[in-house]
Amino acid sequence: MEIIITADGSDTLFVPEINEHYHSTLGAVQESDFIFIKNGLGFCTADPVRIFEVGFGTGLNALLSAVYSLKNDRRVYYTSIEKDPLPEYIIKQLNYPEFVDEDGQELFRSIHSCNWNIRQKIHLNFFLEKIDADLLGWDPEGEYDLIYFDAFCPDKQPELWTRDIFTKIEQITVRGGILVSYSVKGEVKRVLRQNGFRVNRLPGPPGKRHILRAIKI
Asked: How far is residue 129's CA from residue 120's CA, in Å, rounded to a whole number?
């Protein structure tokens, strides 16, 4: 696994085994902030908001969500599932805390140092539970207002973009709940509609034409 500096100066990881990056090489922080914060958390009206993330990865989405909840005095209960947690030595090299305010470094450290499989308080308004499990074998539980669907792309990880997976997601999403993702592939939109979501294609961040936001009907 190799650390790559993206176009906005923030890091991402390159995985040679599948020839894929964790984030956009056109800007990791820029992409995550645009898709998951501006068009996800910032769009969701639930308060408190319960978030479920598919693919904890580097913890970037969790960090940006924690910063948002702190700045906007908004309570967030954040649950994320990850099959292959990153080793600590890689996490320590990532430069994401440099892209948030002075509290960012402490938030990033707290997010990654907290125990897996138990909900913990990261700051006054942000509660995190990291699930060390494979979504394929995970039994749906809980109710969520907002879904961050951030698995590797359908071409690289097709097993996580199937109708069965989105059925699991539908089961834990409240009516009127929101799902955001970077993928706008036709098959992804089709299975979401089959599972009761109204799908919208939105303008994407710099370098990407479109992103996806879906609402559970």
From this structure: 6
Residues in the chain: 217
pLDDT reading at 147 higher than 90: yes
Q: How far is CA 155 from CA 68, 121, 152, 183, 188, in A?
A: 31, 36, 8, 11, 11
> Which pTM does this prediction carry?
0.96
Give the per-residue pLDDT at 102: 78
Q: How many helices (H) and strands (E) does the chain have?
A: 6, 11
* pLDDT at residue 42 greater than cutoff 90: yes
**Are 18 and 110 spatial neighbours (Cβ–Cβ below 8 Å)?**
no
DSSP output for 86-115:
PPHHHHTT--GGGGS-TTHHHHHHHHHHSP
Closest CA to 199 of 172, 179, 169, 173: 179
pLDDT tops 80 at residue 103: no
Q: Is domain 29-216 in CATH 3.40.50.1440, yes or no?
A: no
Q: What is the mean pLDDT of residues 106-126?
A: 95
